[in-house]
Specification:
56% helix, 108 residues, 4 helices, two-stranded antiparallel ribbon
Length: 108
């Protein structure tokens, strides 16, 4: 008997097989369908909820961005401390690419 992969739905808190989820969703297909039906049947409640909590949502997003921009990590190739939000840019720089070539030359 094969062991199926299971995942817990964050909506109904039930462990279900992985095929009952779309892509990397945290909620199962039935919970998503339930929410879509609720939004269709009660648009005024959903709108009021978003309007009442808009400031809180924006504040949480702003706090997340601040914390993300403050995170730092070490580039093992260059021995530099860089901000996480600048990692992709750093990997394209001449210094990083030159250091990478030096390491590859040593290994060969």
């Amino acid at each position: 008997m094969e062991k199926k992969e299971e995942k817990q739905c964050s909506g109904c808190k039930v462990k279900k097989s992985i095929d009952q989820f779309r892509n990397e969703n945290r909620n199962c297909n039935s919970c998503i369908a339930r929410w879509v039906r609720y939004k269709q049947n009660h648009p005024e409640r959903v709108q009021r909820y978003y309007e009442e909590n808009k400031e809180r949502f924006l504040e949480e997003k702003k706090e997340y961005r601040k914390m993300y921009n403050r995170r730092e990590e070490m580039c093992e190739v260059c021995n530099y401390t860089i901000k996480t939000c600048r990692r992709a840019h750093h990997r394209k720089t001449q210094i990083h690419l030159a250091n990478l070539e030096k390491i590859e030359a040593k290994n060969n």
